[in-house]
Design a protein that fits this description.
7 helices; two-stranded antiparallel sheet; 3% strand; mainly alpha
Length: 270
């Protein structure tokens, strides 16, 4: 009797471990998987920006693209063109274009900074935010150097020009680099593709760089006759070199000569 009782208890325990325990384990595992999935979904929803925040990020990036990636480099190109001119109205026009491009670039960068300060979490724990902070400081210094420009002939003019040139060039280059980091940050934040924007920006920067390098070679190419079409002025003959001339109303006029047999045809053009 006791043996049969022990046998029955063992049989019941075996059936529990064989049939019921796997069901309980699978149910618990399913609940854990569901809870983990829900936690992951909640975490993704927390880190995913809202549509309004996404639009703020896009406007911020567009403003800084136009400011640092276009207007500032174009302003540098215009002042380089002015430096190659000898003077006159064209120099003044190029100088005012340079100033207008730089002022507009500063205004757009300021609007982009205001959007960043008011709407973004600026913990400065990534390279894009740190470079942006350094850029705003460099822009402020560049504004000060532009307003405190010594007149030509002053001893401090050379030092001012070197400082202004270095600040402007470094600011423009770092602004272009930060535009690339901004595109990368936008993709990381919104999970949206930025491949086409990266290609467009690279094409724009490449064109500006080629134009920048071409400015230094333009005069050299002209001297080589590659642009002017190899137009050479005909050299005067030995007879024409001895012909006396006179300027009348800024035009060179041949003077009449005694009608000799050797130069009889020249008097027909007097």
């Amino acid at each position: 009797m006791q043996v049969s009782h022990l046998l029955g208890s063992f049989t019941i325990s075996s059936l529990y471990y064989v049939f019921l325990l796997p069901l309980v384990s699978s149910s618990t595992h399913g609940e854990l998987v569901t809870a983990s999935s829900n936690h992951k979904g909640i975490k993704e929803n927390v880190h995913k920006p809202s549509p309004q925040m996404t639009s703020y990020i896009a406007v911020h990036g567009l403003l800084l693209w136009v400011s640092m990636g276009f207007l500032m480099p174009v302003g540098i190109l215009t002042i380089r063109m002015a430096n190659k001119e000898e003077g006159g109205r064209r120099v003044k026009v190029l100088f005012y274009l340079h100033a207008m491009f730089q002022i507009l670039a500063v205004l757009l960068a300021t609007i982009g900074a205001v959007i960043s300060i008011r709407n973004f979490e600026n913990s400065f724990n990534n390279s894009h935010q740190r470079l942006g902070l350094a850029l705003y400081g460099a822009i402020g210094m560049q504004i000060l150097t532009a307003f405190y420009r010594p007149p030509r002939g002053n001893k401090r003019r050379s030092a001012w020009y070197l400082t202004h040139w270095i600040l402007g060039t470094v600011t423009s280059l770092v602004g272009i680099i930060n535009t690339y980091t901004g595109l990368k940050a936008y993709h990381k934040k919104t999970s949206r593709s930025t491949g086409i924007w990266t290609i467009l920006f690279t094409a724009e920067v490449s064109f500006i760089a080629m134009f920048y390098l071409f400015q230094d070679k333009w005069e050299y190419i002209q001297k080589q006759g590659l642009v002017s079409g190899n137009n050479q002025q005909p050299t005067p003959s030995s007879d024409q070199e001895n012909v006396p001339t006179q300027r009348v109303n800024n035009r060179k006029v041949l003077l009449p000569e005694p009608c000799t047999k050797r130069n009889a045809l020249m008097n027909l053009f007097d």
